[in-house]
Amino acid sequence: MSALMSSCRLVGVVEKATLFLAASLERSLVLRAIGRVAAFIEKSFQRSSIRAWAKHLLRLYPARVYAVVDRVNKTLPRAELSPALLFPIAYLLFLSLGKMSLLSFSLVVLFLISFVLAFSLASRIEVERVAFEKSSLKLGFMMLLISLFALCIDLYRAYDVPLIEPQARVKLSVAYTYLATFLVPGAVLLTALLGKQYIKGRLSTREARVYTFTIALATTFLITLLGYRTQSVVSLLAFTFIMHRYRIIGMAEILAALAGVLFAVAALGYYRALVMGSDVSLAEVIGRRVELTITLYDYTVNNLYSAGVTTLLFGYYGGYVALATFSSFLDFVPGFSLGPRTIVARNFGVTGVSLTSTLLGTVSLDLGITGVITFALALGSILGAAYALAKRTGSALATALYSTCLAYLLVGIETGLVDFNVFVLYSFTAFVALASIARMER
Questions:
Q1: What CA dihedral angle connects 51, 52, 56 and 58, to 10 degrees?
Q2: 125 and 385 in contact (C-beta within 8 Å)?
Q3: CA nearest 304: which of 351, 357, 353, 350?
Q4: What pLDDT is recorded for position 3?
Q5: Which stretches of the chain score pLDDT less than 70?
Q6: CA distances from 256 to 250, 252, 417 (A)
Q7: What global pTM score does this model have?
Q8: Which residues contact 316 (CB under 8 A, 6 or more apart)?
Q9: FRET partner for 410 with CA separation of 20 to 30 A, picked from 12, 50, 95, 195?
Q10: What is residue 126's predicted lDDT score, i.e. its pLDDT?
């Protein structure tokens, strides 16, 4: 009985704290200042020649091509793209490209079951409106302005473009690079706002497609300049999900986007390999990386099992790898100065580079089976809540957060979710969901 009362009190404290933080953020001077800047830019755009230039973009719309594409879309089933189905299929397809032990595969299955269970429960929440929805335009502009500034400073510090010269990546600032990555969620949020205008009939299909494709291509190009394939793929996937959600594109474009993602990953890896002096084919770039990633994960799990049942259940580092997400970036946080992927590499005796070990490699090494289950429940709950908010309210903010989180999750199947910017994104998504639920209960 006392445990139940303590749990209720904890829920009450979390609810009050969430409402207080949400109200403080909405009334903050920073958000007000960004709102004024956003309003000024919007009014200036309405009166400037840029708007007329944007109208000229409509002439580039391939009407004949899209007439064929639309006919193809009518013959294809319109899938919901639920993460409860999409994510497990993508994960299992990825694993089919490599080999692993039964123990390692069983751990993945346990993770997927826990994820689907948490997602299914969280996606049942009922909400009428989403917190910060009225501030969506302000938040979108704020992320765009800050990330564009960080991107420019980052490239200036490197004195080169890492996309063209891969070795220039070592000169990039970690802080500026993390800030620059928020260019994608910021642009996705603005695209979601355009999607809402399209659903309401305020934009034609031609306008919606031209404007959203322009934003998507420009954003993907800019973030690709940093030379990180992860961000390029996240950008392509997030824009694909957001445009599908608002019915701007159909299944034909999704299939084309997935093909484009595979080609982008292979092309960037192939170009980097050529610059570094390696002689590999385009197909080998993906095959070798996937095989190495799965092998590292398999070795990690089997080494934990060899060390004993306790190590398998609770991991080897006891949370210090998770803490490295912060300690490697923030000097005042105690812990490793190396990033989680670099710790994985050092664990295998490799120095000078970081290694990916699938979504579960770092988690299992750090916290074992217990950590894997906890991680699955957290991811499923956050994504399920965001999915429910987007589906039930049509909120641009919720849809943008859901699309971007899902994109990072799919990419994380190979790379893992161990970056500070990803933690911030998922934490803010959870915060918006909690604030929305708390306000509904009031």
A1: 50
A2: yes
A3: 357
A4: 45
A5: 1-57, 268-285, 439-442
A6: 10, 6, 26
A7: 0.89
A8: 304, 307, 365, 366, 368
A9: 195
A10: 85
